[in-house]
């Protein structure tokens, strides 16, 4: 039975891969050979066809991410949408690519030195259950978001920990526990970053656009306006992660037959203090200093990548060597190539006016003059969601979408400040494909999630955002305005 099931799964995977390859090829050929569509320039049609071609390859995965990403950038140059290959690979000049590279290296040191086991012992007891561990994971992630302003950094740190805890409960790599945990790491975790102005790129970008286009806003004001709605949205989403795939709430560690070192240490030494190794102490101090530098740097303007660079350098020094050449070689390079390729494509779409064409075409079709206020707001939310699905990060989506939506708010007489916070919440809660959010891409790559899982739970968090935003808009934000 097991072999038959494996063969069936393999055939389905191959069917999806070949189907994706055929569809992607047809899209590309159509974009190259068919006459230019009305309103489009030839370069726009070519870029759109390359964009869709690449997305289909990434979804179906007939070839590794690295190969399909290199192919996409090669097509940008070969089809003449860029003047040089340097321009076609310009996405790799993005800070995010290198920041992610550094964060993955730092995150791997947590597992390599055994700090994930130590953290797990603090999160678990002999009477812990998988459901309690899910709740502990979500609580710790939200608390950590106030000190580590990067959802990617938090995800990278906790991914090995989730695998270790799963081993403790003897649940396996594709259990409901792991699916729920990776939903929290990928989809729910970034929601916490919206609570503070310095919580992540999308919050920082939104605050700057609000300052320049709407009104001044301080760090404290942002926290007052956003922490309660974000907490509510985060709680709804985390609870659903454990309910969509039900997690056992009766099996304890003491019931497990697992033989991992972590299971043994939790069971036998629950109340004993284990001595820290030299490597554990070094990594703990370096990671603690890095987090502190991120917090302080968010106030005085130090880019988040600078502390990460110094942390990796320190951990690579000859007398330390926690990070080695082997660690770099064994990295998941596919994710980095996906991010770099997506940024390259988006940059070409911007320079050719393709993004402007998409936005203008969508807005020209909408009769705002015949709509009520809330109908107009709902349509703006829908536009934001559609545009969000085109971008690999929420920060990039907000950069393009928010100024346009604010302009609509001005023309239609909608509260631009409330609208800006709402768009941030909607975009930050919406992920339809793994490539839309870096933390989801990490969870998809390292966890048991499928494309279908990612899409379904992305819809769940989006629906919750549509519940929380009206509550904040109608009741909480007006109350804060009256108090302040």
TrEMBL record:
The chain crosses the membrane at residues 15-34, 46-76, 96-115, 141-162, 182-210, 222-242, 291-316, 328-346, 366-387, 394-412, 418-442, 454-476. It is a multi-pass membrane protein. Its main location: membrane. GO terms for molecular function: phosphate transmembrane transporter activity. It is found in: Membrane. It comes from the Archaea. Residues 254-275 are annotated as: Disordered. Keywords: Membrane, Transmembrane, Transmembrane helix. Pfam families: Na_sulph_symp (PF00939). This is Sodium/sulfate symporter.
